[in-house]
Every structure is written in C-alpha cells, then in structure tokens.
Amino acid sequence: MSSRERVKTTLNHLEPDRVPLDLGATVVTGIHLHAYRRLRDYLGLPFIEDVPILDMFQQIATVAEDLRRCLKVDVRDVAPRSSATYKIIIKDMGGYEYFYDERGIGWRKPKDGGLYYDMFDHPLRRETSLKDIDDYPWPNPVDPARFVGLRERARKAALEEGQAVVLGGLSAGILEIAAWMRGFENYFSDFASNEDLLCHLMDKVLELKLAYWDVALREGGGFVDVVQEADDFAGQSRMLISPKTYRKIAKPRHKELFDFIHSHTEAKIFFHSCGAIRSVIPDLIEAGVDILNPVQVSATGMDSAELKQEFGSELSFWGGGVDTQRVFSTGTPQEVREDVKRRIEDLAPGGGFVFATVHNTQPNVPPENIMALWETLQEYGRY
Question: Please, how many CA atoms are within 13 Å of residue 346, restricted to the half-sphere of its CB?
C-alpha cells in the first residue's frame, strides 16, 4: 500500500495496513527548527547549515527528504504560504529582529533566546471604517507567482512518489486574520460594539480565500487529497467566543468557504482549531469539515476516546497522537510511549486517523522523545 493509498483509505474511514504519519505537511503538524536540528544530529543525518523554513512566524523547519524517508512520512505539502513575489526583509529593532508580512502585520523575535516571531503591529488597529477595509492594499490572492510549479509538484508527489498531497491555504483563518489586522483588544471589542465592521472585515478575508482556492484547486487538479484551512477560537478550558457567537458570525462564513471548496474538489477539508472546541464540533461537521486537527487532548472536553466514540463516524482525526503540552516536551521516553499507545488505541480503530503530534513539535522536545513516539507508532500503529 502506498502512502497515498494509506491516507485515502483511512480518510474514508477504513483501516489501511498501518496508521499514516504526518510530519511537516502543514504548518500545524511540523517541527520547530531547534528540535529539528537536534533530531537530525541524534539520527546521524548530515548537518544542514541553512534549514529552509516552512513557516517564518513559528520557525517551523522544512523536513528534508532523508528524514522523511527515515521516519516513513506519508504526506507532502505542495503549496506556498505567500506570494513568491513578496520578500520578507528582516530588520533590527534594538533587542529584536522584525519584519512585516504581505498583509502589513508586524512580527518580531527577541535576538537573545527568541524562539518565535510574535505580532507587535496591527495595520487596522486604529479607528477604521468599512471604506478603510475596502481600500486597504490587500495582497493579491491570485498572484500567478503563488502557483508556479504547483501542478507539477502535486503530480510528482501523488503519482511518482505515491505520497498523499496536502494543499495549504492562503493564510490563517477568517477569524484569525480579522484579529491580526485589528489587534486583539479591538477584535474582541468589535464582537460587542462594532459587529458590522468585524463582519465586513471577515467578508473581505473570505473573498480573498475564495479567490485563492478557485485558482489553487484548478492548479492542483485531481492530485490533491487534502486541503488545509484553520481558525483558532478556543483556549485551554473554553472557547474565546461563545458557541452562540460562533454560530451567528463565523459558522456561516466557514460554511460558504467549505461549500465552495467541496464544489471544486473531491479532496477532504482539514480544519485546524486548537483548544476546547468540543461544543462546536457538530457545527464544524455541518459546515463541511472532514478532518479535525490538532485534537488538543489536554484541553477541556477533548478526551481522545470520547471524541472518537461520538464523532468518529463523521470526522477523521489528524493529530492527537501525543499530548504535546504535558507529555511530549517534559515527559520521559517511557511516558511518551504510554501516551502514544493510548492515543492509538483511542483513535485508530476503524480508520479515520492520521498520526501527528498535537500541533507542532516544540523546540524543547528532546530527540529521545521524538523517537520514542515514532517507535511506538511502528509497534502499535498496525491493523
């Protein structure tokens, strides 16, 4: 069974020969640069001076072919995250290095010990009108440079390499980009006092996404197996907006986006949303989500066995393979093995499970724990 067959089988809720593995096929199932370097050294793989970065903000490494082969990774990403014509320029800011992305959002990272880039400047943070949103110099979602080589990469991955193909989206989610553009204080206030502006901004983000997917799905053709979208709207113990507010404001826009995608491809929709989202999982299914990620098992209401029992016939789970928050980073290899074994037992029966960590492998995860995870998957992840 090829990797592509394995992934498509499990996403159709059937049991393949083994549980498929994803490492680095999305910016939410990857590995931080520091952990990646240590893992390569631990495995005796050649040192790479300038590791290509898949996601600048999170400092996620692009996983090289030698490591992909070593770990038997089943999935490949084929899409750029931003226009190839937009070049990030890193500048100096005292104790920080910083840059602006193609939407005009400012990001900075401490020079001394910094691990990630955090937002510090939000372009629509000041008093904003509907016209300001319309007139803003938004990036071109259909810039031809975004799609150069996409079809050939997808074809090669699917047909020559036998890999499952994931096509990434234009940006973070509809809610997320609204928050990033407005700044979080304004964003949350807008729900209560400026709903028209917030909805107009979300509709603009939706418009850009629809334009992107229209071109991206045509370019990817029938080689794309999974398309990736995301929106984070929950925390550790509860949602950041109420389920009622989600259903009123976000769900109709998610449904419009997912309906459009489903009408243009047979690929499954992978949706990333961290935290305690249990109360709106039925809404996500109604909106058109096929695959849930990251399956944050340490959040309230997100027990892996319960999720599988309640939603396993309608959703596939991509993630949830190990408790990254409480075990993977600070636990012993034996504790990692026990947690991975439990997650496989909970999520693998009947298919519908692609193994990945809960979100990205963080910089403090030791290579011994990564290999304990992988070895446990090889031992227990077979049907």
Answer: 24
- The CB-side HSE value for 86 (13 A sphere, CA atoms) comes to 18
Contact of 128 with 182, CB cutoff 8 Å: yes
Q: Which CATH number is associated with domain 3-85+124-380?
A: 3.20.20.210
Q: What is the largest CA-CA distance in the chain?
A: 58
Going by the DSSP 8-state scheme, the letter that residue 63 receives in this structure is P
**φ, ψ of residue 18 in degrees (nearest 5):** -155, 165
Long-range contacts of 338-341 (CB under 8 A, 24+ apart): 340/372, 340/373, 340/376, 340/377, 340/380, 341/376, 341/380
DSSP 171: S
Distance between CA 186 and CA 164 in Å, rounded? Answer: 40
What are the extents of the domains in the chain?
A: 3-85+124-380
Mean pLDDT of the 317-324 span: 97
pLDDT tens-place string over residues 17-50: 999 999 999 999 999 999 999 999 999 999 999 9
Report pLDDT digits (tens) over 266-307. 999 999 999 999 999 999 999 999 999 999 999 999 999 999
Write out the two tokens for 369: 């724990």
